[in-house]
Write a structure and sequence with these properties.
single chain; 499 residues; alpha/beta; 9-stranded mixed β-sheet; 19 strands; 32% helix; globular; binds N-(aminocarbonyl)-beta-alanine; binds zinc ion; EC 3.5.2.2; Metal-dep_hydrolase_composite; Dihydropyrimidinase
Length: 499
């Protein structure tokens, strides 16, 4: 059969090797990888270019309300377009259950928004803020079995946080159903206690966000999340790791055989806390949780990526406009407690990681591919369909010009945030042509994809949950205890039933 598309003469990289070959695409799938492939209905000349798997972003906030109740600036259309321009061909944002909401309804509504608007392939995770019987034993189980095989829980934010008892309830369901739990690990009471004292002293400027989200709060909660997961010996992913101390805790747990994984984000690798110290409210642009840290933390993060202590780099795209509709609900009178948390990052995730990582010699190309695509696919139930360039996989491909220099400006980006934390920075390397399921969706700076043309991808069980691994005797004991049907009646899920 003749190829629909042939990508010719490029340098291909996957997560293990770099080699020269052509790629032939038929019906959205990679049909051949090899030398001198036949001409396709369409040929793309990739000589002098890198041919890499399209990026997968498994942590981004799209058309979602935050813990503080604020709607972010990007919907499924603008977010997916922005992602595509940055070389990402699949996003996995969050359907967020706020307190009192039906998890099933939340997922249903979110899926409809995605289907109507996304221009690239997608799935979503859940965010759980309730641990009642319907949420955990009916809706969550059903959703996991229908291909939503991961969810996030918060240890901080008053409106979303689960206490340790609830975390154990949730971890037990994840263990039973082979779902991956993503944990936002910060100690809520430490942050509240410090914040209160800062506010009382009139210290309300954006930089105090960083003071209150002290490293110790992240380190303590990371340690606690790992301890709780160890009780049931269930895999967890600590998201947006920012601190050297948290990395150390994750590394130690892994050393002991725990299935603990970690993610970081480009902003922690490229920006430091002094950005929050800008005059007036300007620092709010750089406010995220956990906050930006220092140069020492950055060094530890790069090393942790290199050593495999952290496995994924995601954007944590949390887009809020720098005005009263977004970051600053009370204008200049906004305190650091009232600012929206989060930074934009979908479009520049891979260009920043490529420039600061590959171009500066901190990462090899296979490491870049693993951190940007392959590990995401493995860890979230998308492999081998996505995350690599092999026969039978979806033709999700980004063709990179490795030497191209770009000076970043907000105006050139496709999100709806209206600013970029990286304004004026010059980076090396850009994904010029982006292909999702065989469709050339970005080419020569233009979008060629219809609203709603992305596909929902049902996910299988995440590799961390299925990889053969001997359970610890403790894990086996407490899993059996949790699986005991008597412990899973609706009555046992009520707050009153908690001793
Ligand atoms: O500051 C952040 N990260 N905002 C987004 C919500 C979250 O915690 O991931
Ligand atoms: Zn065909
Ligand atoms: Zn978070
Ligand atoms: Zn997030």
């Amino acid at each position: 059969e003749i190829f629909d598309l042939t990508i010719r003469g490029g340098t291909i990289a996957d997560d293990t090797r770099v080699f020269e070959a052509d790629i032939g695409v038929i019906d959205g799938l990679i049909a051949a990888v090899g030398p001198n492939l036949a001409a396709g209905r369409r040929d793309i000349d990739a000589r002098g270019r890198l041919v890499l798997p399209g990026g997968i972003d498994t942590h981004c906030h799209v058309e979602q309300r935050s813990g503080m109740g604020m709607m972010c600036a990007d919907d499924w259309y603008s977010a997916s377009v922005s992602a595509a321009f940055g070389g990402t061909t699949m996003i996995v944002p969050f359907a967020a259950q706020h307190r009192g909401m039906s998890l099933k309804q939340v997922a249903h509504d979110y899926a409809a928004l995605a289907a109507e608007k996304s221009v690239i392939d997608y799935s979503y995770h859940l965010i759980l803020s309730e641990t009642d019987a319907t949420t955990l034993d009916t809706d969550l189980v059903e959703l996991i079995r229908s291909g939503i095989t991961s969810f996030k829980v918060y240890m901080t934010y008053d409106q979303l946080k689960l206490d340790d008892y609830q975390l154990l309830d949730v971890l037990a369901v994840a263990a039973r159903e082979q779902a991956l739990v993503m944990v936002h690990a910060e100690n809520n009471d430490v942050i509240r206690w410090v914040s209160q004292r800062l506010l009382e002293r009139g210290k309300v400027a954006p930089k105090h966000h960083g003071v209150s989200h002290v490293v110790l709060a992240e380190a303590e909660a990371t340690n606690r999340a790992i301890a709780l997961s160890s009780l049931l010996d269930v895999p967890i992913l600590i998201v947006h790791v920012s601190a050297r101390e948290a990395i150390g805790t994750i590394a130690a747990a892994r050393q002991m055989g725990a299935a603990v994984y970690g993610e970081t984000c480009p902003h922690y690798l490229t920006l430091t806390e002094d950005a929050m110290d800008a005059p007036g409210m300007e620092g709010a642009k750089y406010c995220c949780s956990p906050p930006l840290r220092d140069a020492d933390a950055q060094e530890a993060l790069w090393a942790a990526l290199k050593e495999g202590v952290l496995q994924t780099v995601s954007s944590d795209h949390a887009p809020y406009r720098f005005d009263a509709s977004g970051k600053l609900p009370f204008g200049d009178a906004t305190t650091f407690k009232q600012m929206a948390n989060g930074m934009p990052g979908l479009e520049l995730r891979l260009p920043l990681l490529f420039s600061e990582g590959v171009a500066k010699g901190r990462l090899t190309l296979p490491e870049f591919v693993a951190l940007s695509a392959t590990n995401h696919a493995r860890m979230f139930g998308l492999y081998p369909r996505k995350g690599h360039l092999a026969v039978g996989a979806d033709a999700d491909i980004a063709i990179w010009h490795a030497e191209r220099e770009t000076t970043l400006t907000s105006a050139a980006l496709h999100d709806r945030v209206g600013y970029t934390p990286y304004e004026g920075m010059t980076i090396t390397g850009w994904p010029e042509t982006v292909i999702n399921a065989g469709r050339v969706i970005v080419e020569a700076g233009a979008l060629h994809a219809e609203r709603g043309s992305g596909r929902f991808i049902a996910r299988t069980a995440p590799l961390p949950c299925t990889a053969p691994r001997p359970l610890s005797p403790r894990g086996r004991f407490f899993r059996a205890l949790a699986d005991d049907a008597a412990a899973r009646t609706p009555a046992a899920r009520t707050p009153e039933a908690r001793m």
